[in-house]
Each structure stands twice: as structure tokens, then as C-alpha cells.
């Protein structure tokens, strides 16, 4: 599997939901995740992908990176966490690890792992964050900001957007899982709003080639980001139409009958969300479906614990970064960081109904991701 490859929707659907949840759960586990990160740092997973090996052989291979005792500890903890197995005095990969954490894994989540590395040093800041975090300022994510102000904001975030490419690319499979049972052949035109590197849009196009698939992303105004996205899709030979659109100020393509927006509403304040909902309603053809996959609270304890773990990591990292490198430039977007209460599915359902949507339904997908979908009458 190359850096630009994607699993098919059928491959994603074949993996049991509890396995996907467990793979994400490792990245949310403050004890298990450092062990996984260490296995990757030592390149042990790729070494063991070539076949089982003794601990002594591995110790010789990584002698310049790990002491024998530290390697033994790492291996034994990895076995306890289900990442490795010991058989006949030889270590081997579990099916679980092969599925998610190798470069050529069926559903590769290395982009998610890389994103969560930043939380390793930051988690100790959570107690201070719980004492001192302010409310987030999300005005630039709403129709309260004009298009020029928003364009300048997103241009300043260019390095962050590019650095996040592998995270958004590899986690597209988790978003696509919400559509595994959808009859994509019942749709003609799909548009993904806030599409990032367009991996999610590409998975849908690959699953249903008859679809016309649009990807709308404000960051496509950056020529380099747009070119890198187009090149990755060309490598896969998956035609997705890319549009540099600020949805709050410009119209989406016409006749959309499946409108998706992933990881969007979790970034919106209550004050700014209704404007977005009205824009999405207006963009969707009558009878069409809106589908939002995001970090929503469902009311299910296991799902909401997963969401709480993720939010805790976010807040710890925010506090850690602000303490390490306080912003001095008034244009620094970190001034807007802070607590933004997670949306509950029932709360979002009420908002969507208020702007005209009907038949609103929701469910957990891969915790902490949940799906909220609705129909435009």
C-alpha cells in the first residue's frame, strides 16, 4: 500500500465495527498508545511483518535504539495490549496489528497514530487545562466573519493543513464506514464539504463509479494544497471534482442529492451553526440526504467515553502548547483555542429540524465518530 492508496468501501465494511473501535481506542489510551508508538519508532512492526522473530534477534537488530530490558518491557506490554503475540518463544504480529498499523495495512491508521503522537508529552497538562481553559472563539468559522477575513485565516493555517494530510487521508476510512450500508447507486451527485485531501470523496467514487463526486474545500485556494490533492487522486485514477469554495459565501454545485460534511460541526459554536445548517439545506436538492460524520455525543456510555477521551487530549495539548509557546501575534489562531462543548446528536437533530430538514436520525459509527443524517423535503 502506497502513501496515496485507499481501502475500498467493501474492504472497510468487512472489518467488524468493534475492531475499528478498538484500533481507534488504542490511540486514545494513555497507556497503550505509547507502547504502539515505541513499536513503530523501533520499526518492530515492519520487521515482524516479514515473519516471527525471537526477542534476542530483535534486540540485536535495534541494539543502538533500545536496551534489552526496555525492549523486553515493550514486547511484553505490547502482547498484553494485543499488539503482538508470543508463540514458541517468538514474537509475531496479531491480526489486529496487521489490519491497522502497517504501511500496507488493509485499513491503515498510521496517520491517526502520527496525529496522536503530539499528545504524548501534552497529557500531563490536563489538570491545568481543567483549571484554566477558556471558552473557544469560533467566530471565524461562522457567517459572522466576512470572506476576506476567513480567507486570510485559512491561508495562515496552510502549514497545519499540509501537515495534517496523512491524518485526514488515513482516517477517511473511519468516516466512510458510516456509508457502508448506503445504496450509493440511488444517488447521482455527491458533494463533500470541507473535503481536505478528498480521500473520503474518493472512497465514495471508487465504490460507485456512476456518481459525480464534488469535493468542496476552502483550502483548495492554496495552489500547492490543491495540486497535491489532485496529484494523489490522479495516482489512484479516481476522478473527483475539486472546488475551492467557501460554503458560507459561495454556492455549491447544483443538483446535489447526497451532501456530506465530516468533522465540521464539532468546530462550530452554537451561535455559528445555524448559518451553516441553512447553507447546507439550500445546497441540497429536494429529496436529498445530508450526512454528517463527526465527534458527536450519542448518549451511549461507551461512545461518549471515547469522545471524552479525545476531547481531554485536545484540551491538554492546547494548554501544553499555549504554555510552551504563548502567542504574541494578535493574528495567531491559537487565541481562539478553548472549550467548545461537544454537540449531542439530539441537539443537532433539533437544529436541523429548525432549518427545514426532516427524518433526522443518528447512530454511533466508530467511536468517537457518530453519524447524523437528515432529508430535505
UniProtKB/TrEMBL annotation:
InterPro entries reported in the protein's UniProt record: SAM-dependent_MTases_sf (IPR029063), WH-like_DNA-bd_sf (IPR036388)
The protein's name in its UniProt record: O-methyltransferase
SUPFAM superfamilies (alphabetical): S-adenosyl-L-methionine-dependent methyltransferases
Amino acid at each position: 500500500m502506497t502513501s496515496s492508496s485507499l481501502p475500498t468501501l467493501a474492504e472497510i465494511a468487512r472489518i467488524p465495527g468493534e475492531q475499528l473501535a478498538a484500533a481507534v481506542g488504542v490511540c486514545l489510551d494513555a497507556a497503550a498508545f505509547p507502547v504502539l508508538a515505541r513499536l513503530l519508532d523501533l520499526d518492530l512492526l515492519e520487521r515482524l511483518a516479514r515473519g516471527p522473530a525471537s526477542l534476542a534477534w530483535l534486540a540485536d537488530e535495534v541494539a543502538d535504539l533500545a536496551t534489552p530490558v526496555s525492549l523486553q518491557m515493550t514486547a511484553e506490554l505490547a502482547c498484553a495490549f494485543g499488539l503482538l503475540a508470543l508463540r514458541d518463544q517468538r514474537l509475531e504480529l496479531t491480526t489486529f496489528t496487521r489490519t491497522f498499523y502497517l504501511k500496507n495495512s488493509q485499513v491503515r491508521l498510521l496517520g491517526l497514530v502520527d496525529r496522536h503522537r503530539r499528545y504524548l508529552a501534552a497529557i500531563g497538562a490536563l489538570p491545568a487545562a481543567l483549571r484554566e481553559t477558556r471558552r473557544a472563539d469560533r467566530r471565524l468559522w461562522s457567517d459572522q466573519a466576512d470572506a476576506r477575513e476567513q480567507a486570510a485565516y485559512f491561508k495562515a493555517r496552510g502549514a497545519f493543513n499540509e501537515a495534517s494530510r496523512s491524518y485526514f487521508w488515513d482516517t477517511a476510512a473511519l468516516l466512510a464506514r458510516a456509508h457502508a450500508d448506503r445504496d450509493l447507486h440511488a444517488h447521482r451527485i455527491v458533494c463533500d464539504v470541507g473535503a481536505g485531501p478528498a480521500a473520503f470523496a474518493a472512497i465514495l467514487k471508487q465504490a460507485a463509479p456512476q456518481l459525480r463526486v464534488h469535493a468542496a474545500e476552502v483550502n483548495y485556494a492554496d495552489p500547492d494544497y490543491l495540486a497535491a490533492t489532485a496529484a494523489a487522486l490522479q495516482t489512484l485514477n479516481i476522478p473527483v471534482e475539486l472546488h475551492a469554495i467557501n460554503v458560507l459565501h459561495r454556492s455549491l454545485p447544483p443538483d446535489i442529492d447526497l451532501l456530506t460534511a465530516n468533522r465540521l460541526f464539532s468546530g462550530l459554536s452554537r451561535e455559528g451553526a445555524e448559518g451553516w445548517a441553512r447553507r447546507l439545506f439550500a445546497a441540497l436538492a429536494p429529496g436529498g440526504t445530508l450526512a454528517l460524520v463527526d465527534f458527536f455525543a450519542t448518549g451511549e456510555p461507551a461512545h461518549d467515553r471515547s469522545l471524552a477521551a479525545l476531547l481531554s487530549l485536545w484540551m491538554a495539548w492546547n494548554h501544553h502548547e499555549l504554555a510552551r509557546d504563548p502567542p504574541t501575534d494578535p493574528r495567531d489562531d491559537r487565541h481562539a483555542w478553548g472549550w467548545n462543548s461537544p454537540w449531542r446528536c439530539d441537539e443537532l437533530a433539533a437544529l436541523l429540524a429548525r432549518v427545514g430538514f426532516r427524518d433526522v436520525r443518528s447512530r454511533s459509527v466508530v467511536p468517537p465518530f457518530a453519524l447524523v443524517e437528515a432529508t430535505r423535503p
